[in-house]
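Q: What would this complex look like in 3D?
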Amino acid sequence: MKKMKLGSKLYVLLIMMFLYAPIAVLIAYSFNDGKTTVWKGFTFDWYIELFKDSSIMTSLYNTLTVALLAALVSTLLGTLAAIGMYNFRGAPRKIFQTVSNIPIINPEIVTGVSLMLFFTFLGRMFNFEMGFLTVLLAHIGFCTPYVILSVAPKIRQMDHNIYEAALDLGCNQIEAFFKVVFFELLPGILSGFLISFTYSLDDFVITYFTRGSKFQTLPIEIYTMIRKRISPKINALSTILFLVVFAVLIITNIRDYKAEKKLQSSK
Amino acid sequence: MKSKKLALPYILWMLVFVLVPLGMVVAFAIRDDGGRFTFEFISKAWGYRDVFLHSLWVALLSTTICLLLAYPLSYIISRAKARTQRTVIMLVMVPMWMNFLLRIYAWVVLLSKNGPLDSILGLFGVHVPLIGNTGAVVLGMVYEFLPFMILPLYTVMGKIDKSLIEAAQDLGSNGLKVFSKVVLPLSVPGIVSGVTMVFVPTASTFLVSQYLGGTDDIMIGDVIEKVFQTDRHTGSALSLCLMVIILLFIIVMNRFGDEEAVGV
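A: Here is my prediction, written as structure tokens for the whole assembly.
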């Protein structure tokens, strides 16, 4: 691995500027004492207003509830599905994989409208309106395929003899799973859970079509705020979200890096 | 562990929440309210062919620009020190985690009249509308989806065996030859998945063109959303067409990727 040449360094720098300049501007305006894009001085007012806004706080609560439940259910559903799928062979397996990948491949908007048609149909039959439950179901639907994708490789990689060994040593099937197999799959299960959680937090399109008229999540709230046009509260909200994401990524990266170093030095 | 039954809940789930809803889209697209088969809605969808073409054009432009920007970057990162690789890739991923509406909104602010960029250009006496045209839409798409191009390219290039490149150099290839004979062919799988991951969402995204584009820049996602509010049949027909186009695109891309892989 050699050192980067000057030209290469400049190029990386330019792309980074392209990626971060808009975010920097967004953050800068969250401190602007005025509603337009003209700089009028420094203020924290938008942050104070943000926390006073009860509808934003409700949306935040809704978003976190949906994300947590969706991640839990889809992790369970997806892990079971991945294990079951491992025992499929030939055509059934191929069909299973293809159908399971539909929510990933299909344009989000098509998934959104198809669920809207379906839920309005059910709603008329059983007399309910779209809202929390339909959003949750939709989120479980688009998260589960990602859980399968992250758990399935772990099942393929693991040594299946240890399961047999656990059975031979007197475990029943359920004990053998939770005492042995579960820990082999755990990294895949955890990353499936995290992917689901973040995708659910961030989803706008599918929520937009399945939320009915009252249920609000944070991305929907952002959409309405942008519609109503330019209140720097959006900027304050973006700044906070950005800092949280940035902190989480840096922490996990440093942890990985340290773990790797430890591994190297122990060799 | 040996039981196929564990997959049963999800199989039922897929049946109810994936296949039935998609079946309903198809049914709404080809049947009228009385349940009779009709081409009426498909032909109404055909009336929007210009919007389809425009969406594909924007997707093509955005994908090409993403590829041109991402390719050198991914190559540079893949050859840097391990620690630099880790840092740069993390920096590429951070904006992906920000809500896409906020990222588009950032460009609305940046490009707006009397906004930062407009003011800077104004100092040089340049007065052009920065927002409300196809260029702004493409810019927004490139910004939105560039990381989706960088990551698969980087993954593939990082796996290229350095000794292959050295061997090519030892055998007398110059930089250009090394690139065209070694690096490029080996990075095809990354190109294929990067192009798919940028093209598909770009062609079907909605809202981006409403915020950044002009009145002629409306894209197919926006039309589907709007038509659905009043006419579910034509909306379904449009969705069906979009689905078929995307499916064809993915099939073509996969075939292309497979052939290249065999060629190497």
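A: To summarize the key features: Chain A touches chain B through 81 residues (CB under 8 Å). The radius of gyration of chain A is 23 Å.
Q: Very helpful, thank you.
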